């Protein structure tokens, strides 16, 4: 396979982190109160009345008015009724550029015709689910294995969260060890034990409301790019029963918001081999987006287990899975034993690998392979990032923009760049107060982007797809220009 990856040039992580360090030391630059008020009245009140009316009713039946966090926007969530290629359309008929991309998986663009036709054909012949084996379960698993050498076997599940849970259970059974080390700030779903130190390195249990503290007794963290810190944990754990697995997002925590040095993943792999620990790559975002062989192909790493998300179902429901080397995947075998002597990981999911999901996932990956979608999306990410950098310079703003292919970061307040050092507990109240203020301004900037027809992930992350053209990217940049023209120090 002659693969072209989405990343044209890997970002200089040291330089970017230095810029982010400077950003959070400066005053907050955000949309002016006057401009924000104009957007609220002229756009949200006048152009989105049907969305507003529906959300006002929805809050009576749905907590907060929406069913998932990505849908929440300030001043109120908009109701989207159509997705096509690079565009989204709301209930009031407004059109937007889609840089949310359902949280990352739609590398082809939203609702591609070629996939939709295959799904309709499946629904007409089989229906979405039978509870029994379907031919596309095999076809999808083999396709993924053919493209990703470290994924010798693949088990489909319903979400990335479930897949992370399953991988942890596999690691503990395979190694007979208990401790899990994750990278601080990384997001591996919302299961109890992996809710440790999400979003902000060093935050420990503070972001995990509703989870008893004793759940975290076998979960540890190390800071991004800190190989010495990781090895110290591995050394200590070796004296206390060992480490079952190290789990990381290969471009950095929260999909590369805090970027990793290029050689970091390979060094982590070397440490895992040295200490008899499994390496788990969480490729929920990076699998197929960075390239057909994922981040592991790009970085030249062979993880023991790999986590997949929505892309394996072509962004249709039933969206996740875990793959890996046969010697570890055997712990996910079905049935009551099949004559095998090893224990089986407790993993279920009645609707996992349903025919609809498998057909959509198989043809999505085939279409990406045929069209070179990962590379096309990456080039659009390059163009978007270059344009944002020009606008930042034009308006003399302290913002930071960088990308890992089609994963584009626009940091205006640096909320997720803070870290908590528990050796300096007096700093914690200030950090929590500062991040709270900055989150509010992230929402305000996100509202301004939305009013300019730009749907982003929390106003700070943007995913490009192969459905974009250079003209679309340039038009989107004109919207960012209008927002940046109304930014001032707070």
Number of domains: 2
- The CATH architecture term of the largest domain is 3-Layer(aba) Sandwich
Q: Given this structure, which CATH class of the largest domain is correct? A: Alpha Beta
General form:
globular
Strand order of the largest sheet: 5-11-10-9-8-6-7
Strand content is: 5-15%
Helix fraction, binned, reads 25-40%
Beta strand count: 16
Name of the CATH superfamily of the largest domain: Type I PLP-dependent aspartate aminotransferase-like (Major domain)
Overall pLDDT = 93
Describe it.
The radius of gyration is 22 Å and the shape is globular. It has 2 domains: 13-110 and 372-489, Aspartate Aminotransferase, domain 1 (Alpha-Beta Complex); 113-370, Type I PLP-dependent aspartate aminotransferase-like (Major domain) (Aspartate Aminotransferase, domain 2, 3-Layer(aba) Sandwich). By secondary structure, it is an alpha/beta fold. It has 15 helices and 16 strands. The strands form 4 sheets. The protein has a 7-stranded mixed beta sheet, with helices on both faces. A 4-stranded mixed beta sheet has the order 2-3-4-14.
Concise synopsis of the structure shown:
Helix content is 40%, strand content 14%. The chain has 490 residues and is an alpha/beta fold.
Topology diagram in text:
Elements: H1 13-25, E1 29-31, H2 33-47, H3 49-58, E2 80-84, E3 87-90, E4 95-98, H4 113-125, H5 135-147, E5 153-157, H6 160-175, E6 179-183, E7 219-222, H7 227-238, E8 243-248, H8 253-256, H9 264-274, E9 278-282, H10 294-299, E10 305-308, E11 320-324, H11 326-329, H12 355-371, H13 373-394, E12 400-404, E13 407-411, H14 428-451, E14 454-455, E15 461-463, H15 470-484, E16 487-489
Parallel strand pairs: 4-14, 6-7, 6-8, 8-9, 9-10
Antiparallel strand pairs: 1-16, 2-3, 3-4, 5-11, 10-11, 12-13, 13-15
Helix pairs in contact: 2-14, 4-12, 5-12, 7-9, 13-15
């Amino acid at each position: 396979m002659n693969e072209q990856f989405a990343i044209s040039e890997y970002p200089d992580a040291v330089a970017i982190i230095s810029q982010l360090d400077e950003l959070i030391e400066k005053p907050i630059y955000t949309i002016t109160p006057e401009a924000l008020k104009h957007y609220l009245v002229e756009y949200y009140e006048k152009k989105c009345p049907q969305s507003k009316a529906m959300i006002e009713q929805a809050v009576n039946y749905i907590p907060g008015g929406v069913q998932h966090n990505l849908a929440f926007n300030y001043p109120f969530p908009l109701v989207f009724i159509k997705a096509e290629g690079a565009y989204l359309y709301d209930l009031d008929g407004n059109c937007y550029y889609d840089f949310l991309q359902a949280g990352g998986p739609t590398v082809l663009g939203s609702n591609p015709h070629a996939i939709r036709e295959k799904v309709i054909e499946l629904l007409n012949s089989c229906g979405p689910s039978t509870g029994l084996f379907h031919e596309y379960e095999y076809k999808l698993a083999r396709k993924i294995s053919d493209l990703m050498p470290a994924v010798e076997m693949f088990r489909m599940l319903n979400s990335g969260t479930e897949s992370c849970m399953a991988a942890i259970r596999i690691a503990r059974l395979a190694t007979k060890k208990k401790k899990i080390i994750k990278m601080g700030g990384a997001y591996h779903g919302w299961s109890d034990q992996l809710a440790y130190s999400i979003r902000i390195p060093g935050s420990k249990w503070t972001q995990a409301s509703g989870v008893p503290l004793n759940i975290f007794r076998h979960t540890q963290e190390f800071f991004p790019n800190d190989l010495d810190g990781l090895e110290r944990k591995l050394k200590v754990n070796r004296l206390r029963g060992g480490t079952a697995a190290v789990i990381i997002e290969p471009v950095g925590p929260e999909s590369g918001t805090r970027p990793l040095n290029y050689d970091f993943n390979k060094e982590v792999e070397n440490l895992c081999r040295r200490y008899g620990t499994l390496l788990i790559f969480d490729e929920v975002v990076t699998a197929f987006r960075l390239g057909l062989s994922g981040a592991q192909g790009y970085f030249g790493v062979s993880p023991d287990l790999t986590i997949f998300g929505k892309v394996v179902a072509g962004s249709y429901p039933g969206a996740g899975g875990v793959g890996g080397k046969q010697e570890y995947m055997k712990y996910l075998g079905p049935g009551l034993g099949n004559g095998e002597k090893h224990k089986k990981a407790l993993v279920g999911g009645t609707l996992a690998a349903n025919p609809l999901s498998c057909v959509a996932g198989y043809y999505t990956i085939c279409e990406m392979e045929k069209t070179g979608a990962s590379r096309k999306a990456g080039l659009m990410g390059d163009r978007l990032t270059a344009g944002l950098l020009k606008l930042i310079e034009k308006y003399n703003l302290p913002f930071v923009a960088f990308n890992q292919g089609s994963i584009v970061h626009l940091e205006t307040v640096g909320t997720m760049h803070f870290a908590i050092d528990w050796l300096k507990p007096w700093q914690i109240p200030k950090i929590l107060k500062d991040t709270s203020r900055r989150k509010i301004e992230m929402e305000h900037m996100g509202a301004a982007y939305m009013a300019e027809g730009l749907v982003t992930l929390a106003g700070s992350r943007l995913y490009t797809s192969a459905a974009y053209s250079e003209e679309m990217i340039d038009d989107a940049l004109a919207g960012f220009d209008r927002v940046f023209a109304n930014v001032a120090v707070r």
